[in-house]
Batch of 2 targets.
Target 1
Amino acid sequence: MAWDDPEDWTRGDPAAPPHVKDFWLRPDFDAFPQRWTDETETEERADWNPPYTWNDMTGKWDDADG
Amino acid sequence: MSYGTNGSVIGPDNVPTTSVASGVWSLGEVAEAERDDIWPAPPTGFILLWGDPDDTGGVNAECYPYAMGKLSNGTSMRVGTRWNSSNANSSRVASGTLDFSGFPNAPTTMDDQHTWNWTFSGSTPSWTIYTEDPRNTYVDSSDNMYQCGAIYDASYSYYQAAVRKFNSSQAVQWNVVFESTAGTTSGLANQLNVIKTASGYPIFVTPVYGYNNYANKPRMQMLLLSDTDGSVQQSKMCYDSADTWSAAQANGPFRITNPNGDKFAYAFGDFVGTYQTVCVELWSVTSTSMGNEWALSNANLKNNSTAHWGGNDCYVYGSWLDSSNNVWLVVGFASYNLDSSGTKTNLAIVKYDSSGNFDSNYLIIRSDVTAGYDHPMYAGGIIGDNAGNIYVSGYSMIPGGSVSAPFIAKIDVSGATPSMTWITQAGTAAGNNYAQNIELVGSDMVVSMGYGTTPSASGTAVVGTMVALNTDGETLGSSTVDGQSWSTIDLSPYVSNATTHTSLVNQTGNNFTATNNSLTQAGDVNTWIDDVPATASTAILVESGGI
């Protein structure tokens, strides 16, 4: 286990380094569940995408239903 | 008669570590005994742990300290921390006072302990309080204390934010709670800062999640409060100029500076879509408004290294505003090793002058792989003495070891080009320890604060970790703390420090804007819980050892 690698810590572990805890708080837009493309009509995008929220406890994007 | 003078006497004040003959020793004998570690020299600093190192309150009684504020006597420190006081009553905000007037001897107790939380007429999770920011506690010139924390409201489903004022006796003066009023929101984020400017107006800053282009993303919310009752005098939001792009966001870390008169600075992370920058802003405060001193889009620090797989990311970890309104930052970024063998996280000390101009003569401190030290170095806090010296804290691996340890570096910034005066690391093989903050105390003490682990009855306890050194850099040697051996070493042979580089650049003309808004309103709290002082079973304990 590398003490400085966020991937080697369990979310919520109080002993994790400060930079790892900061990493957990930052929304991960590489994992953003965007399902429309640039060609999708704007009015259609809302139907396809609920307002996603970053859950820093799970490290995942929640939609309106969690 | 004190140690070190002719005829020094072994007695209660000069205790040898092993059996030695009583009586009068010559200086030569004393020197030999000191050399052989039989009779160690008086301490020049100390290591201090606090929390529940022996699991008195249960295995979940942990201490994650983040903030500290110096009291007006100049030698005492009010410490703010997240404190899980027991298995049954977890997650409170705590504070206490450490008296450093005996430096280089360590305090043995934490005085004036106070813990707080809140109840809500909902389920147990609504008790949860979070505060993990190094600026969650501020002490003003009259020793009033301001603390903030994110509270999870189960009925609201998101975080709210609580701000509380205490007087010098830690009696509560007022409580305010905020929640977001954005049409679609997911509440407040857990990175809260509070300070108070010289004219007497508390500033509270929090990220607020708001909806734009299919994502709830954090933006930066500033609240100017009344010192009388905590009511909002002005509310201002800063957000990325590219806000319509779902990824653009103010995502932290967030680091407000100390105030200088009516001014304060704010540095925070901005994700511009493809990489992470640091936005820097200088603000001035009147009784009813906050105004930015610089164009908001002109101070934006970027990692210009093309080496790292992480792209051009750069993060701020500490900020300090000097008496001339220059803004000093300690930042973290990744770049190639000195021998180009790979990439690694380094730290840099950066200055923006009072007009917002970036000083290209910045200092980078990084591990020297050519000296056999191949480890990332992470930044903590930064502070200066307004006399040509800057101090930074951080953490990195112990040379030859496998755990993290705090370090403190002193930087000479009296000339046009900064240079490192000394760097000292204090660590133990018994566990990881970190530094998040830094403070100058008295005339000759610099202290880093963070948290770490120490062996406990049930395994490992998370405790506060403090390293106190003399500012002359001569605090080196060994120590025993909570039964564990600590070593304080000169780290300079293992690191490189240089000002010849092009890794960091300032970019202008993009990113941030600010507007008045009303995106927060009074939130819900039923009953506050205050324990003054903390009961014996939940008291914060102190362990220390001289260096």
Target 2
Amino acid sequence: MDTNAAISPPPAELIFHGGPILTLEREHPRAEALAVAQGRILAVGDAAAVLPLACPATRMVDLGGRCLLPGFIDAHGHFANALQVVAWANIQRPPAGPVSDIATLQAVLTAHATGAGLKPGQWLVAYGYDPDGLADGRPLDKSDLDPLFPDNPVLLIHNSNHGAMLNSRALSLMGYDASTPDPAGGVIVRRTGTREPAGLVMETAFLPLFVHMPKPSPEEMLERFPAAQELYTSKGITTAQEGATTASDLTLLQRAAAEGRLVIDLVSLPLVLEVPAMLRERFPEFHGEPLELPQPVREAFGAYHNHLKLQGIKLLLDGSPQGKTAFWSEPLLTPGPNGETNWRGQPLFPPEVLNDAVARLASQGLQIFAHCNGDAAIAMMMEACHKAGLRAEQDHRTIIVHSQFMVPGQLERYVELGLHPSFFTVHAFFYGDVHVANLGLERASRMSPMASALALGLHCSNHNDFSVTPIEPMRMLETAMTRRSRKGLVLGAAECVSAEVALRALTIEAAWQIREEESKGSLAPGKRADLVLLADDPTAVAPDALTGIQVVATIKDGNLVWGQLPGAAPAAPPSSAVRTEAP
Amino acid sequence: MTAIPLTPTPLAPLRGVPVTVVGGWLGSGKTTLINGWLRQTPHPDWAVLVNDLGSLAIDADRLRTNHGRVLELSGGCLCCSLRDGLGEALLALAGMARPPAHVVIETSGMAIPEQVAAQVPLHGLRLERLLAVVDLERIESLWHDPWVGELVQRQFRGVDWLQLSKADRLDAATVAQRRQWLRRQLERLPGGSAPATQDDPELARSDHWRQDRPLSVEKLRRWAADLGPEMLRLKGEVWLTEHPQGPVRVDACGGQLDLAEGPSRPWPSSLRRQGRLVLIRRAGTGPPIWPTLEDL
């Protein structure tokens, strides 16, 4: 392989050797050594070719059998949520969190309150409450929380993000009691046989809580950037996504970037509905057509400034399948979220509005990321793309985020129109059993059809949609390979893919979707030295061992941003290094 | 529980402020209707909240107001955004120097107006009326639309009255036919009785009554029967002699009075027994006579 050694290369700062190096390059998928200089990959290939690049200043990293890969790329998620949850207690069930019963939940809350120095009257907020994960065989009651927190309102956000468990203090602050009727489209759950609120409130009964929740200042939010980024770097992610950016989020992200607070790259996708507010704030004199962006804004897309870039515009067409707010063409087997019969969800935009938005964005050359979960939402989006004149040969890279429940024939249409899916395979684990109940096994098995999409030559990425599911690249691999639910049901065995293919969805294909395949996503000379060091080779272990693989170190632009470099030693003379490594 | 002072609710300045919720499909004429109200009578102390999720062309300037209290509601799915647009807009209103005397919420054309209205009392404001604007020209095709038809049908739930628009673009026979058709469709919906309709774009009159003494079912029925065709909607909870344990829901439109069989909930306390009725009648009617004991 080319070592770029011809014209006085910069000196190698780091050289990795002594373990599997998965390049994600089709020609040379494995290498023996990799050299880094000035934030980029200097050389990658056989040890005999790379190790001689070492000079006295080179730091030699003996992998000791550990595995080096390109840093993972978050193909879709919500960094803004990371800034929120780092201030909250994590009460998710394993594997996402530590809570297995009411006692552990209470312990986590108490520890969080102590750690945060909670004063009387202040809110205690936690996320990921899942009654199904409690071994006690019953959901929480407010009396489980009241003795611990008599003087603090407690809010435990339900894992659906559509409701919360409250203690008595919070209920009384909200004014919810036995005499409060359930609002339309919402529920105040009562103690059995009474009208006394038990603590859980859902949907329209939950929404009014946001008014009471603490509002951190921009300065407090800025202080959270290290912890929020660590959620990503600790899992080997070197490019994160803010996949539904509001006007106020954008202001915060730009400020954080300008102040040098970003250590990893962050890709922002402004929400289409927030675009007018973003423009008004930055270009008060500009009065264009709806969704018309001024030239400087269009040109700002696609380039990083201090690790932050705008890449495309985010459209939302429907809700979530587990919340039954996705938009399907056929009804579910179970009632809708408010007990509706023959429920098939609903779109968030009518077709005429969507068609207009897609046409206006596409004609300005803006990349579109469209959230579509149900097949009807996908069909609406395909129709809008067709009407806007989008075709595959234009290389517009319109991404259909989730592409979750597709029906036969839709992937072929993706090929014609040039649409590409970002899949969400961890749904098999987290929500697979729920999908089978709602949709039946056959429809549920069509979720995230990765093997079929790849067979058609589509560029498929895979995502966690953080904070909807935890940041776990290894679980993305596992679920892409096994498609197994919590209960052990396999959803669509024909769509299982190999570890190598599943890894591409987290690296080179994810890079392609944000037009960074030339600089990221694989290990090749000249590409960014964004790397992750794993304790084991994910292509060499059984799928169920994948989530046990530890991240040893994460490197962004050649700098260690998380963990430790093992076996790091000053460079020995090149000849001896080569000799040591020779088989 | 020890009395620890909590931060008072940040929406305290808005407590009891009356709210009008205006729902209806995109392009049905919600903005035109609200603009008409604001033009006819100056309402410098009103605030208008606009939610344009679905239209994409947000332009708060389009509302002709002379006080600048037009706020946008941001929307989106809660799962991803972890925020609530209505609450944020109300917080902004509560923070203004002078609280509004009335809040008009124009829902998104894709929203279920009833679900927006349901949050109003939970925020401590008073829901005065919920109306849906119906575009007579498009309603029939929207009703059967393969993409959005079911959503269009769900938008009619719980509305107090229908405000018909764009009748001027149709001939009289078509208007009559559409009205009849719409009534039939609404009556067929689950739990459906068709709300009253109004063509006059003036804001209907809304009065409310606090009932401090119990009333018999018979007296209530007799009073309601006398309200006549001016009545668009009567709704609320009454304190009935026959049911001392709690308030009983009442709902009337089109001459029919629906009374729940018994209390839907207990009184908050024995000292807080009180019925509350809202009576919505056509614009231009005088103050109502309530069914006090002396009158009946």
